[in-house]
Amino acid sequence: MTTTIEAPRTPRTVRRRGINWEKWGWIYMRASGVVLVVLIFGHLFVNLMIGDGVKALDFAFVGGKLSSPFWQVWDTLLLWLALIHGANGMRTITNDYAHNRLVGVTLKGAILAATVVLLILGTLVIYTFDPCPAGQPVDLLPTFCPAVGS
Prior knowledge:
Blueprint (H helix, E strand, L loop, with lengths): L20 H28 L10 H8 L2 H29 L3 H28 L17 H4 L1
């Protein structure tokens, strides 16, 4: 009986149809990693280096940043790219180490659920944050709110 071993680079004749999710996950990790480096260092530079640095980080600083459409988009991109990047990494680890199908599906479902919940809550915080809510006692509002100045 003779066994023939194919050469390592022999092309496969069987092609699977559909989307190659592993390939697109790999591409996403590389692309999002590059964009995340720019977003994270921009975020750190503005928060820690410009102005008074760490001493300036307070409720008013965050309220001012989140009232700007530029920073809302910046923080949304940072949130979405980082969470999906991390979830994709956890999915890859699950694929590598969860050998039982039920365990793998359960873990990937939990990762997906946690990611969706955090994306929704984080996005809501970014776009609905109001440092000067109406009807609050004036002594509890920050000094930059219009009700305090009058």
